[in-house]
Amino acid sequence: MTIGIVIVAAGRGERAGSSQDGPKQYRRIGGKPVIAHTLERFLTWPRSGPIVVVIHPDDETLFAEATGRLPGADRLVTAFGGETRQRSVHEGLRTLSASEATHVMIHDAARPFVDHGILDRVAQALDEGQEGVLPAIPVTDTLKRGGSDGLVYETVPRSGLYAAQTPQSFLLSAIRVAHEKAAALRREDFTDDASIAEWAGLPVTLVEGSVDNVKLTVKRDIDMADEKLSSRALPDVRTGNGYDVHQLEPGDGVTLCGVFIPHDFKLSGHSDADVAMHALTDALLATCGAGDIGDHFPPSDMQWRGAASRIFLDHAARIVRERGGAIMNADISLIAEAPKIAPHRQKMRETLAEVLGIAVDRCSVKATTNEKMGFVGRREGIAAIATATVVYRGDAA
């Protein structure tokens, strides 16, 4: 069984504020668009199959901006929605049917607080052979039926009543047939996909939803969601360390932090052997668990023979940015008896700042000797220790 996902995001959200604010699924809560929060829940769920996002034709740029930095965004397929939610879902189902998906979860983009627990419960019901699954929560408020005159006509018993949520999930072929039947009969009065399934005779099983899985409908909902996320969000500050060492051999100079320094020796290595940039590359990769320099630029690959190490550092910085990180500080300690580093320190800092795309005052280069002890003291090699500080946004890698 492969569970495909259809995210409905083509609405205009008129009740969520003025048109100048844009569709509600692209409003920012907790520092990023509503739809980004929603998609992250599915992109990080282990059982997610193909993901189709149904958007409005006018929102292509908004969607690209909202999802461009999401890890796994390359998995997203878009389809254009119709004038109603029902038509949009139909388009999403048609697009998903071209994939390997056998089942589908249909979810509203404006429900950003769906969690993996709900998805697991829905999937378990599908595993057990249910054709339709509806997450829902029991109605707890007392319900009244009123008339046009503003008077209460009766109290409605709440026993057995539930508030429907999404994702509503089905056997893909069955719900698509139901939607096509409704479209052929021009029935567009259904309020959700479960009601279409009921009308078509498909059994729908209730599973436990969540009180947190709310739909953002009006501006107040969005403001409250933003307040909720902003108040609980802690800065995601990560520190990575890196260490590298290269042997010295007779030559005409060494390259450290991208700066060539004339010397009676050179550093031996597959690339230009810039120990400082190598150590800093590892430090940056460590902040997002992206392995080390050897994983990305193996010494066995001849294309990197003699390569400038700024290529490696630029690659690591790009990975950090793609995963939502902002490089805050880079600190390098060089351990060498010679050559003298002080005359070149400013140029080194400027080079690091240029490669990393940060201010010079966020780049530090220091040097010390090894007091003539060990291989460094014997002038057999140069070592470097690097520390990188990166702040990641929200639920980044």
Q: Could you explain the architecture of this structure?
A:
With 397 residues, the protein is α/β, with parallel strands linked by helices. It folds into 2 domains: 3-232, Spore Coat Polysaccharide Biosynthesis Protein SpsA, Chain A (Alpha-Beta Complex); 236-392, 60s Ribosomal Protein L30, Chain: A, CATH 3.30.1330. Helix content is 30%, strand content 28%. The chain has 12 helices and 19 strands. The protein has helices at 34-43, 60-67, 85-96, 116-127, 172-184, 193-199, 219-232, 275-286, 293-296, 310-322, 345-356, 374-377, and strands at residues 3-9, 28-29, 32-33, 48-55, 76-80, 103-108, 132-138, 143-146, 152-156, 162-164, 168-171, 205-208, 236-250, 253-256, 259-262, 265-267, 325-335, 363-368, 381-392. The strands form 5 sheets. Strands 1, 4, 5, 6, 7, 10, 11 and 12 form an 8-stranded mixed sheet that branches. Helix 5 (172-184) crosses helix 6. It is elongated. The two termini are 28 Å apart. The mean pLDDT is 92.
CATH topology of the largest domain: Spore Coat Polysaccharide Biosynthesis Protein SpsA, Chain A
Write down the overall geometry: elongated
How much of the sequence lies in strands comes to: 25-35%
* Number of discrete domains: 2
CATH evolutionary superfamily of the largest domain? Spore Coat Polysaccharide Biosynthesis Protein SpsA, Chain A
Low-pLDDT regions? none
What distance lies between the first and last C-alpha atoms, to the nearest angstrom?
28 Å
Q: How much helix is in the residues?
A: 25-40%
Give me the secondary-structure category: alpha/beta
Number of helices: 12
CATH architecture heading of the largest domain: Alpha-Beta Complex
Overall residue-averaged pLDDT value: 92
**The CATH C-level class name of the largest domain:** Alpha Beta
| Largest beta-sheet characterization | 8 strands, mixed
* Rg (CA only): 28 Å
The number of distinct β-strands equals 19
